[in-house]
Design brief:
about 270 residues
Amino acid sequence: MTLSIKDNSNWLQVRRYRELLYVLVMRNLKVRYRGSLLGVYWSLLNPLIMTALYSAIFGATFASYYGNSILNYMLAAFTGLVVINFFSSSTSQALSSVVGNGALLNKIRLPVSVFPVSMIVANVFQFAVGAFPLLAVIALINSKSLINVLALLFPFLSLALVCTGVGFLVSALYVFFRDLPYFYELVVFVLWISSPVFYPAAIVPLPVKKFLLLNPLSPIIESLRQITLSGNLPDFSLIWGSLLSGIILLSLGWVCFHMWRHQFMDLL
């Protein structure tokens, strides 16, 4: 009987968390795209424009690393840009989510973790209906295999795990350090430069490449490119590497968030 009551209580908490998450995600999307003509598809505008710009500047130089095809370079740049844009937007929004809802948390008892998670989930939805279908079409055309299309879910899952972990970490730190957004802009810039977004990873010198391996976005970008552009079956070593990065960062972010959250209410 005791176990049954406990299990029922846990299920009610999960259900309440899920319902609250749904409400917050819908609120986020409605506020973000209220009165917008293109809605979630505005998220594609930045990577498409930047892809065109990179192709005009670097296309002829780096095309040799992509089968002497500027089109392949454009597709490679696009995959890198959608990853870095997703990371930047989702984690930056998660950063201010706890502090931004401080007044609500002081009035109502709510699970604090739902706020950064809701920001990540809103961006996952945006990615799923925006960039992901394009990547799936590219993978299907190049590989002619549904296996590659389905395999895209793994680096996408890795990206969501990385962003959730970082979102937990930065949203917790922002409660204590209100200058964090300025520093975090620098962190995102460093991650962008150290990720093979507009350049092929092959041009990076070996001594430098060892340090770039610490960048959790690099294996995700490389895995996406291998699945979408190579035409070969998915490289599971890249997939496992990206998933490992996601699991490690999610665990680190959650542990830090859980350790510090009891101090939040005194500072909000």
